[in-house]
Amino acid sequence: MSQSIIAKRYADALFQLGKEKSKLEQFESELQILRDVYRSNKEINTFLKHPRFSIEQKKKLVGDSFQSFSVEIVNTLKLIVERHREDIIVDMIDDYIEMLNDAKGIANADVYSVRELSEAEKQRISETFAPKVGKQSLNLTNIVDPSILGGLRLRVGNRIFDGSVSGKLRRIERQLVSANNR
């Protein structure tokens, strides 16, 4: 079974548990902290994967390191360690956050622009495009890309809204080429 399917299953189980216990937001904030720790501290991953340390030592490290977290999160981590699936932790967290955002009507989107956008501009873009993709709001990641020349390009999932100058020039070029071929 692929790692991504396994990560989704753990994320789904945590999501259902969070819903039952009304802890969805608490789980999200704890998982975001865990993701930051896991990405910034490579030694924890090395320790958790090392064959010389027993499962009990690894579970103790998880319990001691994340004792301020909810019992459900700590037990999930211990279960992941017990089953030697340390590689799925970041994917599981990403899947959980995606499920939570989907439940809230929020989508992640990349907006490409020539310069860094202000918060007000991001808010207007979110308000304009969220209804077009059937969401209540968008979490925007601004990517500065001078090659678009001007305007914006927005990517939400597999949908792209291209209002960039370079995109318009490409469309004009295609029209001219197709008109010459007739």
Automatic annotation (TrEMBL):
One MF term in the entry's GO annotations: proton-transporting ATP synthase activity, rotational mechanism
GO CC terms, sorted: plasma membrane; proton-transporting ATP synthase complex
Compartments (UniProt record): Cell membrane; Membrane
Family per similarity comment: Belongs to the ATPase delta chain family.
Superkingdom classification of source: Bacteria
HAMAP family assigned: ATP_synth_delta_bact
Membrane topology term: Peripheral membrane protein
Record keywords, A-Z: ATP synthesis, Cell membrane, CF(1), Hydrogen ion transport, Ion transport, Membrane, Transport
InterPro entries, alphabetized: ATP_synth_OSCP/delta_N_sf (IPR026015), ATPase_OSCP/d_CS (IPR020781), ATPase_OSCP/dsu (IPR000711)
Chief localisation class: membrane
Short name of any one Pfam family annotated for the protein: OSCP
This protein's name: ATP synthase subunit delta
SUPFAM superfamilies: N-terminal domain of the delta subunit of the F1F0-ATP synthase
Organism from which the protein derives: Halobacillus dabanensis
Role noted for this protein: This protein is part of the stalk that links CF(0) to CF(1). It either transmits conformational changes from CF(0) to CF(1) or is implicated in proton conduction.
